Amino acid sequence: MDIFNTEDYAVIGISGVGSTYYMAVQERSTDKVFAVVVLTKVSNENHLNPQFGYKIMDEYQGPVQAKCPKSILKLLPPTDNEFAKNWRQKCWNYAHALKLGDLPEGSIIRVKWSDDDIKEYKKKKYRRRYRWFNVNNPDRYITSQRLNSVGWKLLKKGNGAVNA
Fold this sequence. Notes:
The protein is α+β, with helices and mostly antiparallel strands and 164 residues long. The chain has helices spanning 70-73, 82-100, 144-147, and strands at 9-17, 20-27, 33-43, 51-58, 108-114, 117-126, 129-134, 141-142, 152-156.
């Protein structure tokens, strides 16, 4: 895949996160839109001869880098490819996780651990930190860090203090 061949491909959206770039790319012959991840690296070990390197992957390869911004994800149509679906879900999880700490105390979220394991958690302060307590079993809590690995849905926004 040569995405730099503008006769075959058009970049319809691009965003950088650190040294990684995320793109929504359209294949001109089929109008198919998919995500592309470009890793970049600059090596300044030899100041007289700096080196630049890059690696291009599409979402069908299941890239490890999964911090694609919402602006790019929203440009992508639904897909049947399992690697792409899993990668997109990781990206959405990351996008949501960034806001998890911003929710005020008293907020309630729903987490789907599996098809038959869905739990609700409420944000409360515990030992100078905020934790997410199981609504049905208030003695059990989970950290925001653990919740970052799964998708969640906000059910109720609390009125308390905001702090991760």
